[in-house]
Amino acid sequence: MQIVPDSYWGHLEYSLQFTLFLILLCFIPFLMSSCAKTTTVNMDQMDITMHENWSGDYPVSELGRLPEKQQDLTAGYIGDTETFIPVWRAFMPKEILPLVDFSKNIVVYTRNTRFYNRKSIISVRQQNGIAEIIAMETRTAMPIEEKVAMAMAVIPRQGVKAIKAGDKTVQVKDLL
């Protein structure tokens, strides 16, 4: 059996043919827009490699050693040796000071601000230059009294423009 190209359409009335043609015309822009490639500024989230990480207690009396304007936040970063040494000595007084090359790396941290909950950094993710610390913590209703739980990690400085700290961001300063 041979199919004539106009055999199906030939049996339909012209008004129905016209209606089907209009429906097809309406769907073409819709189909084209769904296939169109859009360019966005948002890049996919990517995990940042952690070189080292630590968890422990940090004395409330020593919160002033944390970088200025980050002392009340849930997360932040340390970008130089002069700040890191006193923070480390308060955080891990019996441990040897780790060598951190601050020309290539920063130390990010997360800590308690409301209740005392053990914390551990699982990963650090970056999107559009903003690093977000993904941490695991216990859930308690113990008030913060003498200590807070804190976790720190060394991550590469390259590409990190800010650290997400709850609903705020902390800008990462370039080395001078």
Explain this structure.
The protein has 176 residues and is α+β, with helices and mostly antiparallel strands. The protein has one domain. The chain is built from 3 helices and 9 strands; from the N terminus they run H-H-E-E-E-H-E-E-E-E-E-E. Strands 1-5-6-8-9 form a 5-stranded mixed β-sheet, with no helix packed on it. It has a 4-stranded antiparallel β-sheet with strand order 2-7-4-3, covered by helices on one side.
> What sort of overall outline do the alpha carbons produce when their principal axes are compared?
elongated
Share of β-strand residues? 25-35%
Instruction: Trace the largest sheet across and list its strands.
Output: 1-5-6-8-9
Order of helices and strands: HHEEEHEEEEEE
Q: Span from first to last CA?
A: 82 Å
Mean pLDDT: 85
Poorly predicted spans = 36-40
List keywords for this structure.
4-stranded antiparallel beta sheet, alpha+beta, 176 residues, 3 helices, 9 strands
